[in-house]
């Protein structure tokens, strides 16, 4: 626990200007980002007597080791830079907005040659137009099924599309006229793209145009007594009307608005938003917020708008296909991400600043206000009731979850006699089949939860490049590689390099080389802010195994001179926790939350290692003798096998015969002959018995995933 006085900037050093500041811990990792109208006044609040600070603020300033800031010209610039830094660093003490579910979207892949309509979840992709989010995927499918009568856009996967083209006949949807069958050339790429754009226009709310167009065509068909065509058009109009009716009109004036509601307490809150476009509810979304910093509802609303519209505008800027007349990025952001009205339960601390920022994103004026009366007030109340139900459901599902995680970390800290709770845990596991295709996994848990973006896999090389001789050698190699990379990246980055200093009492201390002071406001590779992949260490390293694996990991850390990282191993048979240099294990109660967390970490590392091993083994078992021929790629390998029919016939062919294959030359043909002649000369010996890394026979009686 650090004393904030040790890194407090000198008096007068902090400017009295708008800006953004960030606190870093002893490893240089950004743990909090904030903005201020006056940096001097705001930062002074953090360095007052600890007893006068909020408990969460106390925890933040005592976890930090330095503070730095960037001066900006206006408060709007500060808002934008704060959002960029929060997205770049993912600070631990900033408010976390976590979706209470993965919402499905209706997506149209406009960037494809033949756009596809499909249901998508997760991160948005460039070149794809999104509608939603929707509460249920079945609601999207019902809407699409109705609209395919009028807009028969492709909905099949790439594999089905390719197979239909090869066979020369469309799938079932093509026969029942719910697909225009571009796979077999029934419609040109340009016409199909225009059909997809009409589909998007209808979903965006421009419904009257298409209904009017179909009605006119129906009347024309009736006038010439083409009653079958008129009946089909009548049914198409009915399908459009039913699809439109699924989104009832809630605001009669055709308003485009996002209506937010917030319900919570001092620890967490539930947030709901209704996306209203053209007076109809087009989507609904919710978040659960853990208040890891001391914020008011007004500040929470400001952070929420930052997260929602900053992310949405970024995603929408990458969408569309401008070569086919898509709107410019600013216009797309205006029509998709930021509506004309943003209705909130309470105004942010500086409404003018937030309004200016949103107006800049949209490209036209945005009105941020609290609804006071009428339909909008009633709809806001409906959104608030949804937020209440979401919070009740969240608490029911995850009752005691935060307390449980804290208890687990505290139990591990006490059992292993750690100075602080292990907020970052890394676990390593080795997976192999009789010494072949050796893979290792590294999984990361932060605050008791998996952080999958920082998972890593290692292909175990061994001293000769053929793998390690056993699990302990593999563990030594993996730990060495991980922490050697940590030392290298720490020394290369001035932001996280550790240097020896002297504290006020004259004692030597290891502390971050980052000192408090001004920094650049850019977010880029040179000041990426987020440490490189291995640039800061964990609080605890867990290895899957007993004393031999723990000893190997301890030896690797000692050889690198690292003595500030705790180490333990979890043996699977009796679930014993082993620490280096101890003759007896640490025994945790079977019902303890600490043991349960260690088991989850170990099992996740085991799963991740097996997945990587199977993937590598699958690739290795499909290797062809042609893969190692210089200058021979997959396309030409397929051409040779297609031409000769088998490797046996190819081996019997001459250089001239191979060179006659389209795409082959004499030099490559000679290389193929040489590569295929080598095993033939020795009579193609049988595969050797499985061996370890140094050529030693594999241990007897060992099968399956050793060391997993």
UniProtKB/TrEMBL annotation:
Subcellular location: Cytoplasm
Keyword DNA damage appears in the UniProt entry: yes
CDD domains linked: GIY-YIG_UvrC_Cho
Residue span, UVR domain: 208-243
Domain UvrC family homology region profile: 259-557
Any GO MF annotation of the entry: DNA binding
InterPro entries: GIY-YIG_endonuc, GIY-YIG_endonuc_sf, GIY-YIG_UvrC_Cho, Hlx-hairpin-Hlx_DNA-bd_motif, RuvA_2-like, UVR_dom, UVR_dom_sf, UvrABC_protein_C
Any Pfam family hit: UvrC_RNaseH
Residue numbers spanned by region Disordered: 492-526, 681-708
One GO location term (cellular component): cytoplasm
Any Gene Ontology biological process: SOS response
Keyword Cell inner membrane annotated: no
Domain of life the protein comes from: Bacteria
Record keywords: Cytoplasm, DNA damage, DNA excision, DNA repair, Excision nuclease, SOS response
Domain annotation GIY-YIG: ranges: 16-95
Sequence ranges of Low complexity compositional bias: 513-526, 691-708
Function in brief: The UvrABC repair system catalyzes the recognition and processing of DNA lesions. UvrC both incises the 5' and 3' sides of the lesion. The N-terminal half is responsible for the 3' incision and the C-terminal half is responsible for the 5' incision.
Subunit structure: Interacts with UvrB in an incision complex.
NCBIfam families for the chain: PRK00558.1-5 (NF001824)
Protein family (similarity comment): Belongs to the UvrC family.
Name listed for the protein in its UniProt record: UvrABC system protein C
Species, as recorded: Pengzhenrongella sicca
């Amino acid at each position: 626990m650090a004393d904030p006085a040790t890194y407090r900037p000198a008096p007068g050093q902090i400017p009295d200007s708008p800006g953004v500041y960030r606190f870093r811990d002893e490893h240089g990792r950004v743990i909090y980002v904030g903005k201020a109208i006056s940096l001097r006044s705001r930062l002074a609040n953090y360095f007052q007597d600890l007893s006068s600070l909020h408990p969460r603020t106390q925890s933040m300033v005592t976890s930090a080791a330095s503070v730095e800031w960037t001066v900006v010209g206006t408060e709007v610039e500060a808002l934008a830079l704060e959002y960029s830094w929060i997205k770049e660093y993912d600070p631990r003490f900033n408010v976390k907005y976590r979706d209470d579910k993965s919402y499905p979207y209706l997506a149209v892949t406009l960037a494809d040659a033949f756009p596809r309509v499909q249901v998508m979840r997760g991160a948005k992709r460039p070149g794809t137009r999104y509608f939603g989010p929707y509460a249920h995927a079945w609601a999207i499918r019902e809407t699409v099924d109705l609209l395919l009568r009028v807009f028969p856009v492709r909905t099949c996967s790439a594999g089905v599309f390719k197979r239909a083209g090869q066979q020369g006949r469309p799938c079932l949807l093509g026969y029942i006229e719910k697909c225009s069958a571009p796979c077999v050339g029934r419609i040109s790429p340009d016409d199909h793209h225009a059909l997809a754009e009409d589909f998007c226009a209808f979903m965006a709310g421009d419904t009257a145009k298409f209904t009017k167009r179909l009605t006119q065509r129906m009347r024309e068909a009736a006038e010439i007594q083409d009653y079958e065509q008129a009946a089909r058009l009548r049914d198409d109009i009915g399908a459009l009307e039913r699809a439109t009716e699924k989104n009832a009109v809630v605001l009669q004036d055709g308003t485009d608005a996002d209506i937010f509601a917030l319900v919570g307490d001092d620890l967490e809150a539930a947030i709901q938003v209704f996306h209203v476009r053209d007076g109809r509810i087009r989507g609904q979304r919710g978040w659960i917020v853990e208040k890891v910093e001391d914020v008011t509802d007004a500040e929470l609303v400001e952070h929420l708008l930052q997260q929602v519209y900053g992310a949405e505008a970024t995603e929408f800027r990458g969408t569309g296909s401008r070569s086919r007349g898509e709107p410019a990025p600013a216009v797309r952001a205006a029509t998709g991400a930021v509506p004309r009205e943003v209705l909130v339960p309470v105004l942010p601390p500086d409404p003018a600043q937030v309004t200016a920022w949103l107006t800049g994103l949209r490209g036209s004026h945005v009105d941020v206000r609290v609804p006071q009366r009428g339909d909008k007030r009633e709809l806001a109340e409906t959104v608030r009731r949804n937020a209440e139900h979401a919070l009740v459901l969240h608490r029911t599902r995850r009752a005691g979850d935060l307390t449980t995680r804290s208890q687990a970390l505290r139990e591990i800290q006490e059992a292993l006699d750690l100075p602080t709770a292990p907020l970052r845990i890394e676990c390593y596991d080795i997976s192999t089949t009789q010494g072949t295709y050796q893979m290792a996994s590294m999984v990361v848990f932060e605050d008791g939860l998996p952080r999958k973006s920082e998972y890593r896999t290692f292909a175990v090389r061994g001293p000769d490049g053929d793998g390690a001789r056993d699990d302990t050698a593999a563990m030594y190699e993996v730990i060495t590689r991980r922490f050697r990379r940590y030392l290298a990246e720490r020394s290369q980055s001035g932001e996280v390099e550790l240097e020896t200093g002297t504290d006020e009492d004259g004692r030597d201390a290891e502390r971050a080389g980052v000192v408090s002071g001004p920094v650049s406001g850019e977010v880029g590779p040179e000041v990426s802010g987020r440490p490189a992949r291995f640039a800061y260490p964990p609080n605890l390293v867990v290895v899957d195994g007993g004393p031999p694996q723990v000893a190997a990991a301890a030896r690797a850390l000692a050889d690198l001179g690292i003595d500030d990282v705790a180490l333990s191993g979890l043996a699977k048979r009796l679930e014993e926790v082993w620490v280096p240099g101890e003759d007896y294990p640490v025994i945790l109660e079977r019902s303890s939350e600490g043991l349960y967390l260690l088991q989850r970490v170990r099992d996740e590392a085991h799963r991740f290692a097996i997945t990587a091993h199977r993937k590598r083994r699958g690739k290795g078992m499909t290797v062809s003798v042609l893969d190692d021929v210089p200058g021979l790629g997959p396309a030409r390998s397929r051409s040779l096998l297609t031409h000769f029919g088998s490797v046996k016939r190819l081996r019997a062919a001459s250089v001239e015969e191979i060179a006659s294959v389209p795409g082959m030359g004499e030099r490559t043909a000679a290389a193929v002959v040489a590569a295929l002649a080598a095993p033939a000369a020795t009579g193609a010996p049988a595969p050797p018995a499985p061996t370890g890394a140094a050529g030693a026979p594999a241990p007897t009686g060992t099968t399956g995933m050793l060391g997993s």
